[in-house]
Amino acid sequence: MSAAAALEDVVVAYRRGPALGPFSLEVGAGEIVALVGPSGCGKSTALRLLAGLETPTSGTVRRAAGRGKTAVVFQAPTLAPWLSARANAALPLELSGVAATEARRRADVTLARVGLSGAEVARPAQLSGGMAMRVSLARALVTGPKLLLLDEPFAALDEITRRALADDVLQLWAETKPAIVFVTHSVEEAVYMASRVVVMTRGPGRMAGEAAVDGPLPRPAGFRTTAGFRQTAEGVSGLLAHGMAA
Asked: How far apart, in whole angstroms, are the C-alpha atoms of residue 147 and residue 67?
């Protein structure tokens, strides 16, 4: 499997002290990897390195090159409040030089993919939290990224909406198979969504261990109740406890 992105012995140190590393991670093309670890361990810092939003103090970052090849969805939808759902989703295309008419046509197609047909002209204030996150997902997917980075995108949502969006993301992944790296505090969410869960130590985060998750993606109904799911979740929880003590 070719690598879509990688961190090689990266260290991030701020004036206040070290925040991450040394830490290494390789993400294969089409692979879904979850990052879990204690608060403040550097999970989001690792994601920002992969996004090109930050540079390491030392070490090497390899990531999908080219405009639009990497997309990020943050915990807050970060939508422009004065723009419609269509205009928000079209924004990355328009900023890259795509004609407005074509950008908005492609935005409508992507909004339909995330279940928002009929909401194209709604402003963010008119959308529920789940719908706003779907617009944010559409904005990330509209460029056809090879690497999709999700930084706790469901953290502020209720459990029913979280589960629905997790299934939606997996269905969307099945269509174009981008590599996905997502940060979550939920072990069960990590095991449900990822083919591999990487566990980090407390900050500055290092590798505490990782667990492969068996089973088909997208997940079949009842996957959370299977013995394999429960065993993997318990194994990840054990790694997390070890990482917090490291």
From this structure: 12
The residue to which tokens 């993997």 are assigned: 232
Helix axes 129-141, 100-113, angle to 10 degrees: 130
Element (H, E) at 61: strand 58-62
The answer to whether the CB of 31 falls within 8 A of the CB of 108 is: no
- Element (DSSP H or E) covering residue 111: helix 100-113
**Contact (Cβ atoms closer than 8 angstroms) between residue 212 and residue 51:** no
What tens digit of pLDDT does each residue of 185-241 get?
999 999 999 999 999 999 899 999 999 999 999 999 999 999 999 999 999 999 999
| Residue located via tokens 């008119």 | 126
User: What distance in Å separates the CA atoms of residue 133 and residue 161, rounded to the nearest whole number?
Assistant: 10
Flag whether the pTM goes above 0.85: yes
Which are the contacts of 99, defined by CB distance < 8 A and separation ≥ 6? none
DSSP secondary structure letter of residue 102: H
Whole-angstrom Cα distance, residue 138 to residue 89? 6
Q: Is 91 helix (H, G, I), strand (E, B) or coil?
A: helix
In DSSP terms, which residues pair with 152 in a beta bridge? none
Q: Are 31 and 196 in contact (CB under 8 A)?
A: yes
